């Protein structure tokens, strides 16, 4: 401790004192800058229909501040784009598995992919098979972990509420892993879990296993549901898929929800484009091109035209959500953009682009959408395409919801819409799984 070092030598004491003063000054400067940023962001107006706007503005000011510092450090050559944001997120992680009499938590791996397993112990003494849920956390394929309190508590509560085994997958993040690495890990872990050996080990009913996730995790869940439905080598299938405000396409950053909610917390339009570029290993400077829909050209190729038809919100969105917004087409476009980002047309990255014959094979779906979310229309368009393919779909729309709201069902930053959305989500799983 500093007190013990004082006894060793006065010189060391002076150095420590000087260092402490410098550190305190640095902290004070950062605090002042963050306070200024907070004051600025808190003054940004939010729709009165959004859940608890003042609390959300305060939270968003902190999150935006962290993200700006992270990008600034990268611009100065001090770190990679999301390193500081990752470090800040790690403060919220649970250190080591923590069990209770009701829930047993263990860490393991499936085909080399790390995971946390949350097992309800309620039926351990009975010959009773439990529900199973394979869960993928969000975070733009770049941030987050199943060990973060918000996901830890979510999976814990799901296991308890559903008397289930919830398996939270720790897929690798960008930039250490890029598409299709996250997708491949999600598929290989899911395929291993959906074996008689693994399901028997955890007393999971092979006829009652769901795949689920939120945001980027819902992207992986939807892609996994499509792949596993087509995999003839896997006799056990997912019974249902539950997608929470999923990111399903990166061809149109000007859907009505992107236009309406571009600056609404917690997921801003430029940040979503930045996440896609991290995932697809694109140059961050392409953000402006993506936001301008420059992948489109006046005379698109047959492949692009076919993909655009599957994201045509003028036909796929209910009229009530189209409002008065108009499609955005660039005057010239950038024909080489798709050469730089081939993942934009890859169905493994963009499940909304799947062929109808693929969609016909996937399990019934629950899709949660939020009115104040740039990704709202991704989920709604996917629901339409699934319904047209004959798949049973439940759309759960929250008029006062914002992106990531279910993450705020617990803890000091609890939102009413967070708790309501969690209850609605688990109720559906209880009734359909």
Question: What layout of secondary structure does this protein have?
Answer:
Elements: H1 2-8, H2 10-42, H3 53-75, H4 83-90, E1 103-110, E2 113-120, E3 130-136, H5 149-162, E4 164-170, H6 181-193, H7 196-201, E5 204-214, H8 216-230, E6 240-244, H9 256-260, H10 269-279, H11 287-291, H12 302-309, H13 313-316, H14 319-322, H15 337-340, H16 356-359, E7 365-372, H17 376-388, E8 393-402, H18 416-432
Helix pairs in contact: 1-2, 2-3, 3-4, 5-18, 6-8
Question: What can you see in these coordinates?
Answer:
This protein is of the alpha/beta class and 433 residues long. It folds into 2 domains: 1-43; 45-432, Alpha/Beta hydrolase fold, catalytic domain (Rossmann fold, 3-Layer(aba) Sandwich), CATH 3.40.50. It is built from 18 helices and 8 strands. It has helices at 2-8, 10-42, 53-75, 83-90, 149-162, 181-193, 196-201, 216-230, 256-260, 269-279, 287-291, 302-309, 313-316, 319-322, 337-340, 356-359, 376-388, 416-432, and strands at 103-110, 113-120, 130-136, 164-170, 204-214, 240-244, 365-372, 393-402. An 8-stranded mixed sheet has the order 1-2-4-3-5-6-7-8, with helices on both faces. Helix 8 (216-230) links the parallel strand 5 and strand 6 (240-244). Helix 1 runs antiparallel to helix 2. Residues 1-23 have low confidence and may be disordered.
Global Rg: 23 Å
- Overall 3D form: globular
**Parts with pLDDT < 50 across at least 5 consecutive residues:** 1-23
Number of helices, counting only DSSP H or I runs of 4 residues or more: 18
Give the distance, in angstroms, between the N- and C-terminal Cα atoms. 54 Å
Task: Name the beta content range.
Answer: 5-15%
CATH superfamily of the largest domain: Alpha/Beta hydrolase fold, catalytic domain
The number of distinct β-strands equals 8
EC number: 3.1.1.71
Keywords: Cell membrane, Endoplasmic reticulum, Glycoprotein, Hydrolase, Lipid degradation, Lipid metabolism, Membrane, Microsome, Signal-anchor, Transmembrane, Transmembrane helix
GO cellular component, one term: plasma membrane
InterPro entries: AB_hydrolase_3, AB_hydrolase_fold, Arylacetamide_deacetylase, GDXG_lipolytic_enzyme, Lipase_GDXG_put_SER_AS
